[in-house]
Amino acid sequence: MILFHFHFLLFLDLRMDETIIKEINRLKDDLYRQKEKITDIKELVKSEIDRDFDVDLWELSEKELDNEMGDRLSFLNDDIDPRPDAKSITSHRRILGKPIVLFKRIIMKLASAYTNSLLEKQRRFNEQLVAFHLASFIRFRHNEKKIKAIEEKIKTLEEDQEILLEQINQCRDAIHRVRKEK
Amino acid sequence: MKNINTEIIKKILSHSSLNLNTVQLRQELGEIAAEHSIQAAYNALLRIEVALNIRKPTLAIYDHTGHIIGGGQKYGFTVAYTLQDIFDITLIVNKEISLQDILNWYHLDLSKCKIKVIKIPFYEQFDSQELDPGRISRRMENPFHIISKESGNYDFFINNSMNEMVYPLSNISTVICHFPERRPKSYFYADRYTHVIYNSKYTAHWIEKKWKFVPHKHIYPPVDMAPEEKEKPSKENIILSVARFEVSGSKKQLEMVRTFLKLNRQFPDIEKEWKLVIVGGCPDENEYLKKVKETIKKSGADNIELKLNISGDELKAIYKKSTIFWHLCGLDQTDPSLVEHFGMTIVEAMQNRLVPIVFEGGGQQEIVDHGSSGFRVQSSAQLMAFTMKVINEPGLRVELSRSAFEQSKAFTRDTFEKNVKAFFTEELQKYSSI
Questions:
Q1: Are residues B249 and B397 in the same domain?
Q2: How many domains does chain A fold into?
């Protein structure tokens, strides 16, 4: 279906005059300028580009699990404080937006006397939990180092043992030879 | 970027069959911009330009590690070398390099290409040559969108980085995957590219497993270490290993030293007649390299040589005179990313008629046929056994060396260039013949 146009294009190519090329260049510059003004890729392509992906922890290698633990821990750490921030209250409405935001912030301020004690308790709990996880993570790392060191030691011992066995065999052969000569 | 343009461009060009009406063209592009996006309209115009033969098609190759010497980078630059007569090529990098650097490092003359350095502000704060995508989380802005945006200025965009955080905006986009290091997570866009090219079947297997889709095109990396002269080089009793000294020890030089020491102990002839030469790059002396040095020193063996950061010419000379090649990357490894994804140095050795004895895993299985062009082993004990077999049976050694050399022809730069040219010429034909 496309091939037909190829012949047409060859024909068109001969007919291309400077005006058309100039107009194409003008259009291109124009579009380029419009494109450059847009910094957000989503806006540039007019669609959502990011997605969330499920992670199957059982599939991960040791290195990946390590990274995953670090990532999740920093995520928890960033969200320790559950108390709402006044700045998080916003509105997309142009005219009504400001009074709505102001009203919500006042309500939040009034309610904070009651909610703060509860949320402070939660914050302390979160803090302890993150600290506990971090301690476990560090301990896990220490243990991992110890295991690696032990594995190395075993390898060296195995080598030494092999060398010794080799030397024993050589001694045995030598004794055997001496006995035979006698 | 989703290719929505063919039908629209056909429509625009069908107006032209009567008379290429510039007002209509402007109107049509305006409609595309309104209905789809500004980028889609721009892409449509780029394609029209190529279809009408107004200019040469443009192609950008991005590599965030382009300033560091490596096999993956060589892959990307060889693609540029192959396509520089067909496309107007721009090499996008994040740190300063010159075309002369590329010529010095890889012997590739890219004088028809341009280099565009785009610094990534987020990484400029760190005093490091590496731009680690692992630092980026969804909770922060994607710093690589500066490259995503740049990608939309070309007809074709190739991402040769191990970095899936660049969202492709060009009409035709290709990501070259050397190994899927990360799983789909924040800012993952590898599946948004038109094609995914992979370097080995091992990589393809892990793309399917980690990224959950089947990659499109398999092109083995280019390897060009074959000696220039045609006569067979004279060989010495050298067992050679060529690999970087990774901090993690993933290339297993220590295991090779230990195995060779065992051979020394068990077979006095080896100690007298054979030598192990370990060649490797290591910009700074790391803990692993120290350990290798200590083990050699402690053993007192004088038939183990360590050669660090040697020149290309020196490496060629060592390849030429060596007989057996050892490569154990992947041994005792649980992390698939630390197993050899392909194994360029194995092919280099085979091009120099060495008999490869390599680890049974990763891309190494695609290069060496066990028993025919070398041996694949799963342990140090097997490495010892097969090495002794090759040493003790000269007839077998000659046969394996010949087969290895023949097999290496599948991975030459010529083969690579042919595959790359065929693939991109076909894509360009589809792109320009609307």
A1: yes
A2: 2
Kindly list the residues from chain B whose CB atom is less than 8 angstroms away from the CB atom of residue A147. Answer: none
Reported as a single tens digit per residue, the pLDDT across B334-377 is 889 889 999 999 999 999 999 999 999 999 999 999 999 999 99
Is B307 in the same domain as B184? no
Do residue B53 and residue A9 have CB atoms under 8 angstroms apart?
yes
In a shared domain, residues A41 and A75: no
Token digits for A71? Answer: 């990532």
Task: Assess A76–B contact: CB distance below 8 Å, yes or no.
Answer: no
Q: Do B1 and A45 touch (CB under 8 A)?
A: yes
- Would residue B232 count as lying in a domain? no
Q: How far apart are CA B284 and CA A144, in angstroms?
A: 25
Would you say residue A61 lies in a domain? no
Q: Is A62 on the interface with B (CB under 8 A)?
A: yes
Which residues on chain B are in Cβ contact (under 8 Å) with A62?
Answer: 334-335
Q: Are residues B392 and B420 in the same domain?
A: no
Report the residue from B25, B53, B209 with minimal CB separation from A27.
Answer: B25
- Determine, for residues B335 and A62 on separate chains, whether the beta-carbon distance falls below 8 Å: yes
3-state secondary structure of B159: strand
Q: Is there a contact between A24 and B25 if contact means CB atoms under 8 Å apart?
A: yes
Q: One-letter amino acid identity for B434?
A: I
The helix-helix angle for B287-299 and B253-266 (nearest 10°) equals: 10
Tokens of A143: 């243990």
Q: Do A5 and B434 touch (CB under 8 A)?
A: yes
pTM of the model: 0.82
pLDDT at B13 over 70: no
Q: Which residue of B has its CA nearest to A162?
A: B262
Mention every residue, 6+ apart, whose C-beta is less than 8 A from residue A104: A89
- pLDDT at residue B314 is higher than 60: yes
Q: What is the Cα–Cα distance from B365 to B327, expressed in whole angstroms?
A: 12
The pLDDT value recorded for residue A108 is 83
Task: Check which CATH number belongs to the domain holding B216 and give it.
Answer: 3.40.50.2000
Instruction: With beta carbons under 8 A apart, name residues in chain B contacting A61.
Output: 334-337
Cβ B195 vs Cβ B89: under 8 Å: no
Domain that holds residue A39: 3-45
Cβ within 8 Å of B, A 104-133: none
- Count of domains observed in chain B: 2
DSSP state of A84: P
Residue numbers of the domain that contains B423: 56-222+416-432
Instruction: Tell me, yes or no, whether B274 and B401 share the same domain.
Output: yes
Residues A89 and A154 in one domain: yes
Nearest to A53 among B10, B41, B184 (CB): B184
Position A7 confidence tier, pLDDT thresholds 50, 70, 90: very low
Q: Is the dihedral of CA B379, B385, B386, B391 positive or negative?
A: positive
